[in-house]
Specification:
single chain, mainly alpha, Factor Xa Inhibitor, 2 domains, three-stranded antiparallel β-sheet, 7 helices, about 5% strand, flat
Amino acid sequence: MLRNLITIAARSAIRITSYAAPKTSQTVRSFSGFQNQCEKYKLIQPKLLQIAPLPSLTTERSLTKFSLNKGKRKTVKAVLKRFKRLDWGGWIRTRTGRHKKLFKKSNALKKRLREHVFVNSSQAWLLDSMVCKFWRRPKHYVDDPYAPYHQKDYFTTSRPPKF
């Protein structure tokens, strides 16, 4: 495939310029022949043959380690938009793709997409490190729809005392 691409680029470069290149099979087939022709006619190498830089594969979460004003860590606002922290330290999120192409999805799948899911422990640790101390403390909202989930009653260590 690379050889075909080089052949196409060689033909187009020769066609674009007004130079008449000799029509030998070696010129068209091999890259070294094309380089010789470029050197012979002093052609500028076409942009097709230049290797494009690979995209960065590392993710960037843009966490500010130290603010300029007080020197404290800053909260990543995208975490607050996408996740909800429960009082016991767990994080929940909505399912991905819950608004996309709903006409293709079955009713059962639409119902599953409306649910919230927990993140795993390594993701919860990462999210805790991406928010400041204020967002890690329990919040008390009026008519909170997540109120039943703030307590883990099924664990004896976190169960509230019975009076």
